[in-house]
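Hi there, hope your week has been kind to you so far. Would you mind checking whether the tokens look sensible for this chain? I owe you a coffee for this, so here goes:
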Amino acid sequence: MIVTLSSDSPTKDNRRVYAPIPLSGTGCQIKSQVSLAPLTSFRVGGPAEWYIAPSTLEELQASFDWASSEGVPVTLLGAGSNLLVSDRGLPGLVIGTRHLRHVHFNPETGQLTAGSGESIPRLAWLAAKRGWQGLEWAVGIPGTVGGAVVMNAGAHRNSTAEILVNASILSSTGKVEILTPQELGYRYRTSALQGSNRLVTQATFQLQPGFEKAVVMAATTEHLNQRRTSQPYHLPSCGSVFRNPGPKTAGWLIEQTGLKGHQIGGAQVAVRHANFILNCGWATASDIFQLIRYVQEQVEERWSLLLEPEVKILGEFPF
């Protein structure tokens, strides 16, 4: 690989910034040492060694090809809303999918097809404005279509798996597959895609058109208000940190352990909802990671149950 150092190449931590590399056959550029903190809802994390944000399937495939030719690992980044990135950053190529956006409503089938970078809340509002039912519950989920498909995102006793028709999946070799919910192996807040380098490029959902717009809009608004009144959104967070183990929720177990408001550095267990960890404005990724571990230890000591993180933790963390 031939790269040219930019004139402002020295950076903190002695990292070097290279001039952007044009991705052959596309209008995209691969950039070096791009901070990931602004690209995650926690607002923490170090830089990507290399970063690209393709907007077409061709650019996406070319990004995978570049990583393969250079022998570097690939990390996929959607809205960054369910992610904790190490302060040390991530090696290899980070592919941001937020520009893979398109939306198509098919009134004949009642199906909605959207690119993986589309915002789930935006889709919920677009459907509601057309009088299409089926996505009202998703209006408060701060993520993308791709993330929702991979994580089987859900709220208010509904989930992605219940309305998904199929998803287009791109493998690291460039092969595109169309997979059904059964083939995706859905379980609570997870799928067969989790932990793999297969990327969702788009998904099709089955909705129910033909309802009064005002009725669907009102239901969507009600779902959003419920989330806003019960969950803290005034400070950066990743949403729910731990999976609910059942029959008690993770939030209830944490609250009963007396951890509401507990703080390590700039990271705090939310007072409004104990399954949220907040960045009070000066938290590091290490602060958040240490608080996650502390909550796990305390809940396990009290209840003999190890909470499983729902948030995806990437990179190296001190133990």
